[in-house]
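Q&A log
Question type: sequence-to-structure
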Amino acid sequence: MRVDEVTPNVDSAALLAGAQFVDAFRIATARPDLDARHAAEAMVARQPRWIEWLLALRNFIVAPLGLKTSGAADGATRDMIGIFPVVSETPERLVAGFNDKHLDFRLVVDVASAGAVRSITATTLVLTHNWFGRAYLAVILPFHRLIVPAMLRKAGR
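Response status: OK
Response body:
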C-alpha cells in the first residue's frame, strides 16, 4: 500500500499553538466502515518488532532524563489510544498527544470519503520548549518518517 507525504491540512494554531514542526502522510483504503478512532487504534496496535525495539530504546534512554514514556497520568483514568491520551474526537478526526517538559506533540488522524475510497491522513504537530526538545526532534525525525507510514499501512489494511 502506498503512503504519500502530503501538505498538512489542519489548523495548527487550534491544535497546538506555536507548533514549529508539522507534517502529514496519507493512505487510501477501501474499508467503508473505518472511522478515525478505528484507524488510530489500528495504527498503534501490535507494532512491527523494529518499531517496538526503537520505542523501547527511546524509553530506556529518556526515562532517566525525566521525560514521559507515555501520556498516561499517574492514577488518572483517561481515554487512551496506545500510549497517547485522546484530546478530542469525532468520527472523522481523532486528536491525541501530550505535553512534556521538552516538547508538546499532537497526532491527528483524519478519515475522509471520496466515493468508494476512504483516505486516512496522519498529521503530526510538535512544539519544542527548549534546546533539548529541538535536539530530540532532530534525532527522532528520521525515525518518525519511517514509523508513521508503517503505522498508516496497518490502518489501511
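Response note: The mean pLDDT is 87.
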